[in-house]
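Morning run. Coffee first, then this:
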Amino acid sequence: MDKDILEKINNPKLSYPRVAYGKTLVELGQQNDKIVVVDADLAKSTKTAYFQEKFPHRFFDMGISEADMVTTAAGISSCGFTVFASTFSIFLTGRAWEQIRNTVAYGNFNVKLVATHAGITVGPDGASHQALEDIALISAIPNMKIMAGGDYLSTVNLVKLIAEQKGPFYLRLPRCKAVELYSDTDKFHLGGSQQLSSGNDITIISYGLMLQRSLSAAQELNKQGIKARVIDMYSIKPFDYDAVLSAAGETKGIVVAEEHTIKGGLGSQIATFLSQHQPTKIKYVSMKDEFGRSGEPQELLDHYQLTSNSIVEKSLEIIND
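And here it is:
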């Protein structure tokens, strides 16, 4: 593995991707007076409060009314503005799904849906707040594009990227801190990915908080003489088709690790694609067909086997098959 990545995994520096989102909004707002932000009574948690403080006349708190927030965002964007709309993932993709589909996506409005608190690591708030189906729900909608921030700097870059791109986006962010993996020189683009570790034995594809666990798994596999290719698939819809095809052709199989249900997530989309273009062995480290529960984030990741050990086990199953 790359020595720089090893250093970042073995001596991790942690920071909040949602803080990166809030501070990047301020930067964008300073550069462009057409940036508008709406939130649903959670600005302090989503960190849009940074923008609210700097630009109160371009910030609208819609209260606990997510459907209104999404349709209002679409209306504002129809007047030539780029609108960022934020709340927790479970509320944005659950309560406001119809408005996302029938207003934002159908109208192809320039609305950027940025959801924090995605996945099982929402933790003590429990199953009612743990969005495990959001990628499945949003990826099924035409015109919607999906990105996922894996650390602080990737989030900065992705927020800037979706601000530049026209049309609706969904950006998925966690509640927890993430290990800082990227540098100022790393580039991101729609339909792209980042290869964080090289190898031709097995490929591990991941995003978000599972990246750290994927890299730890690659480190353990390396001790066993197995070279793992680790890919951050930060662009989920569209994903990096070329990188997936290369992985299928050059390694013995693919393990997809994601903090999302196995049904309809990135793993499902990759499997559908490869079944038509280059079938290969695929294993999954993801949530099964079940709800989460209350607990501390690490406790929940261990309980639902979203761990580096699970990734190692699935990798070995492919290699030893």
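Residues 17-31 form the longest helix (15 residues). Good start to the day.
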